[in-house]
Design a protein that fits this description.
The chain is mainly α. The protein has eight helices and two strands; from the N terminus they run ββαααααααα.
Amino acid sequence: MTGSNGNGERIVRQPISIDRFRTLLDAYGAAAERWPEVERAAALALVAESAEARTLMDDARKLDDLLDSLPVAEPSPDLTERLLAAAPVAGPAPSARQRSSWIRRSIGALWPELPAWRPAAALAAALACGLVTGAFLPAEEIGLGQQTDLSAFVLFDFDLEVGETLL
């Protein structure tokens, strides 16, 4: 089957079986606008071609009309009360402390008795000690020679003149 999508482009539709059409009618009723868009054109083509499909469509339309004619029953106050009582109740809004970041929660899991700033301060102190030691300890004492001297020039942005050496 071929057709047009409204933009002048040709599209190819796969025909649907009468069983699939029966399933569409059972699930969505006789109103074509409720059918899945990808199957709508093929289903309408089947109705145009098949007497059995037209009969199924007429039966579905009669059922839809019958269901639409039934009055809509309002729920009883007792039913409404029971449903509202059984519904989950929203708790209080979480405080700012409860909405803390994953870092705060992770630190709390590692150090449950300590405030979060203490491990962070310890980490910052260790980092500062490492930087000071690496920058100011003479290179000969740690056995690295010119490597560490060069890192001091890079770290503190010293300028070397052309032809100068580090030692």
